[in-house]
Design goal:
two-stranded antiparallel sheet, globular, 21 helices, five-stranded mixed beta sheet, mainly alpha, about 525 residues
Length: about 525
């Protein structure tokens, strides 16, 4: 937001490209002034709460009122959604747009009108411009309209016209943005441009040219020899990657929700090809394959699994009903009144959902909050020691708070690999990050060997390992490397071009620099 407001589009658009969320934050900053962070958190909370409305409407039309109420409760009680709801991030806005697009797509299919079709297309367009996973919404829109509307010759022409209109609107909007607001920007921006570039550099360029984008031969991603070092955000999965991905997905989905969705699928046995449910299976499968592909080339967080969760609420609500039926049959042997037995069994299932959510929330929420405090403390320490504007890289993508409190910028390595000492010697020192933060990776069996290799290559690149006792007490489990020119040894002597600490210059605060790598 600061970069875009200052007119630095090169840095400000480097990560998200054309995205509506920075525009929302800019508007909130203009309206709320110094309270814009609070306003942004309130916006996220409002979006996450309002998202239950299209979810309720969608499930009610497809499966009935009881299933819709259960779907809303399951959405509201999911601990991972609760954890992310009030955060200043684009995801709650995406949740609302994703579920609203599903509802409007179903409405456009069962009650055809050009207005509903246009509303669905526009909402999908906004969702794509919030998170790229919004393209998954084209699956239900296409399947529902193909099966329910396409057979009509009149509506067939209208569908084609509507599709063409949305494509023209998207293209013209992109062109208009680049010719007006971004006319001083050095290149044209488009939605998903970063993902396309990453896909080319990491997947297709090595296949076409036999080397990475930086011109350095890229090592096999599954190898873990001492000559292959992951640098910064690089990730080298081993043979257990697929198993770890499944475990991470199940933990994000939560174990109880997994049991419920399996029961819901069982309840729909023989009806898996229902037109209202079929797109959900396809979206879940495509989304999981996409996450698997990304997980094999870069670290991910649990938010990538949320679209799968959203298309699972139909099955989840039916799973609650199915488990209530199973328990009710068993309880009917003890309770003569079947209606009372069924209501009691439903209450038992919902109580299990609430209890599971509380346990999972405590298990995940406390360490997550502790990690956020750790990041904030480290960011403040980096700013105090080295001044603002430093480029920072890490072996974890979850370092936004470090960058925020350090007033720093994210640094990315071109191919994200330093393959050997020769490649390290050939690296351009001016493009390397000022600070490298290595978080413990206990889930990796080769973590110790990888860490030692990282330290070796970084020594060759001119980095120094800060002694742990110099770090904030909460952060002494981390490995922090700084460039030689910023180094201050135990005797307190700095390199010649190292900046003074902010506290060392009375009445002077180091200026925030916009030069450097990605934020």
């Amino acid at each position: 937001v600061q970069l875009l407001q200052s007119g630095d589009y090169t840095e400000g658009l480097e990560y998200l490209n054309l995205n509506i969320y920075p525009a929302i934050l800019l508007a909130l900053r203009q309206l709320a002034g110094q309270w814009w962070i609070v306003a942004a958190g309130t916006w996220s909370l409002a979006m996450s709460v309002l998202a239950v409305l299209p979810l309720y409407g969608l499930i009610r039309q497809q499966l009935g009122r009881q299933a819709a109420i259960l779907a809303g409760l399951l959405y509201a009680l999911h601990p991972r959604l609760v954890l992310h709801s009030p955060l200043v991030m684009r995801d709650p806005t995406f949740w609302f747009l994703f579920l609203l697009a599903l509802y409007l797509s179903w409405q456009a299919a069962v009650r055809p009108s050009m207005l509903r079709l246009a509303a669905a297309g526009l909402t999908i367009l906004l969702a794509v411009h919030t998170r790229i996973e919004g393209v998954l919404l084209l699956v239900p829109l296409g399947i529902w309209n193909w099966r329910l509307v396409w057979p009509s010759p009149v509506w067939r022409k209208r569908l084609l016209l509507g599709t063409a209109a949305v494509l023209v609107l998207a293209a013209s909007g992109t062109v208009l943005m680049n010719l007006t607001f971004l006319r001083s920007h050095e290149r044209w921006e488009a939605v998903g441009l970063r993902h396309a570039e990453d896909l080319w550099q990491r997947a297709f360029a090595p296949l076409v040219f036999g080397q990475g984008a930086a011109g350095v031969a890229r090592p096999a991603v599954h190898a873990a020899s001492v000559e292959q070092i992951d640098f910064g955000l690089a990730f080298a999965p081993d043979s257990k990657t697929n198993r770890r991905l499944v475990v991470r997905f199940v933990k994000t989905f939560t174990y109880l929700y997994g049991v419920l969705v399996l029961a819901g699928i069982w309840r729909l046995r023989g009806q898996w090809s229902r037109i209202d449910i079929l797109p959900y299976y396809i979206v879940a499968a495509v989304a999981f394959v996409g996450v698997w592909l990304k997980y094999n080339i870069a670290p991910i967080d649990q938010r990538y699994f949320f679209p799968i969760l959203f298309v699972s609420f139909a099955g989840l609500s039916l799973g609650v009903v199915q488990w209530a039926d199973w328990i009710g049959r068993a309880a009917s042997k003890l309770i003569a009144d079947r209606a009372i037995a069924r209501r009691a069994s439903l209450a038992v299932v919902l109580a299990a959902v609430v209890l599971s959510g509380l346990i999972d929330g405590l298990r995940v929420g406390r360490p997550t909050l502790a990690a956020w405090r750790e990041q904030a403390e480290l960011g403040r320490w980096i700013r105090q020691q080295f001044g603002p504007g430093r480029t920072i890289t890490s072996n974890s993508e979850e370092n936004r708070l470090v960058l925020y409190y350090a007033e720093g910028r994210m640094s990315w390595i071109a191919d994200q690999y330093v393959a050997s000492a020769a490649a390290a010697a050939a690296a351009d020192r001016h493009t390397l990050p000022d600070v490298v933060v290595l978080w413990p990776q206990k889930h990796r069996p080769d973590a110790a060997a990888v860490a030692e290799n990282i330290l070796r290559v970084h020594r060759e690149l001119g980095y120094r390992h800060l002694p742990n006792h110099r770090l904030p007490e909460r952060c002494r489990c981390l490995t922090v490397l700084v460039q030689e020119r910023l180094w201050e040894g135990e005797d307190g002597n700095r390199s010649q071009d190292a900046p003074l600490r902010p506290s060392a210059v009375a009445g002077r605060t180091p200026e925030f620099s916009n030069a450097g790598s990605r934020r």
